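Troubleshooting log. The previous run stalled partway through. Resubmitting the same two chains, unchanged.
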Amino acid sequence: MFDQLSLNILDIGMNSLAAGATALRITVIENTKRDWLVIRVRDNGCGMNKKTLRDILSKNTSTKAHRRKPIGLGLALLRQTSEMCGGVFHVHSIPRKGTGVTASMRASHVDRPPMGDLNATIFALCAANPTVDIELNCESDGEKFHFSSQEGKYHEPRRTQETQGQGAAASCAA
Amino acid sequence: MNLDELKKLKDKAQRQVALREGNKKYRVVFSMGTSGIAAGAREIMTAMLDEIDKRGVDNVEVAVTGEIGLVDAEPVIRIEDRSGEKVTYAKVNADAARKIVTEHLQKGKVVDGLAVGKVKEKEAERPK
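Second attempt completed without errors. Output:
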């Protein structure tokens, strides 16, 4: 198990890059009042057929069979974290259209790992494939943060509350 | 030629440009599969890029790969030079990553204590 949720996101994001995605959208929504945290990773990669989708969480299933040791643990690890923390895990995929992975969890659950360094995750994904458009949408209790690698610059977050912060990515990490 | 074909052509050209831009002396490949990430590959990458930036090393291209089959030796960094020679560093920590930048990427010397690929070759050469 990863000790940071941002490592899970990096892992799932790497799958998307391996699937030949040209756009990758990562969404992190945290709501402390309703006590949930949702992580969503969507890509427009090669997708999976129904059989692969059914087997994807079973032992030793990996679509990256060309590699020397396909292991196939990434999704299972995120599912474990999600379900352990009272959440729901879901993968939907359409062949040649893309894949979406959604993991929710109770934000206050004692076993919930911290978000960790989400900036480093986005940085690593951008470095892994600079041509892919990587988008990060972070929302923490109404405070929004948006990043897109395509535009190559940070947007001033549109805030609904009068909170001052150093970007919601940092506050999400808390 | 329709719009979709043109789009494909553009995508292909963009990919090639991205590859060609990487015409540097060294190519550093990070293993970022599940096991690599779990072992701390992201922190190693951050440390290494920070050191590369700090020392102004500009002959390096950075790439990322998935699992490379050395799960027990993660985090793994592979450095390839233009002649095709590959050196694999295993069980790298942040200090080692910085040392690799100053020794290997700047001076061209292989860091012996960490390089698994090189060590094995030397062992094979050793008379029994």
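Takeaways: Chain B has five helices and four strands. Chain B touches chain A through 23 residues (CB under 8 Å).
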